[in-house]
Amino acid sequence: MRVMVLVKATERSEAGEMPSQELLEQMTAYNEELVKAGVMLAGDGLHPSSKGARVEFAGSERKVIDGPFAETKELLAGYWIWQVKSLDEAIEWVKRIPNPGDEHSVVEIRPVFETEDFGDELTPELREKGERMEQQLRGQAEAGA
After folding, report:
1. How many structural domains is the chain composed of?
2. Do 27 and 98 contact (CB within 8 A), yes or no?
């Protein structure tokens, strides 16, 4: 099963404070463990919301809202995509994430929908299109590597 691991923002991350060399070393070692275990598929840190934007949808209307955004606890500072056997395995990996100092941190784990989760609503034609897009994305990723 694939999961998205969402690292919630903190006051420090929203202020644009960069991690210490020590934390970067710890996170690099942790990510190396994930890669060696075949768990990590992708992952990155995110700039503060002050450098981002939101687009609100209301029917056919679109409204752009520039950051920063007020509720830090609702924002993300980073993410991973992992391939794990179960939610329990993901939880065990998350428990090992290095935590910067005494800072309060929250990490959310959400299963990613797989093709079979969509049932009959995902017609054979739509499945085929999805498979073609996945192949194209893999090809682009390999070409960029």
Report:
1. 2
2. yes
Nearest to 76 by CA among 31, 34, 106, 111: 106
Give the model confidence (pLDDT) of 23-42 as tens digits. Answer: 999 999 999 999 999 999 99
Which residues does 142 contact at the CB level (< 8 Å), separation at least 6?
none
Domain that holds residue 142: 115-145
CATH (domain of 28): 3.30.70.1060
| Chain centroid, CA 17 distance in Å | 20
Predicted TM-score of the model (pTM): 0.87
Give CA–CA dist 13/2, Å, rounded. 26
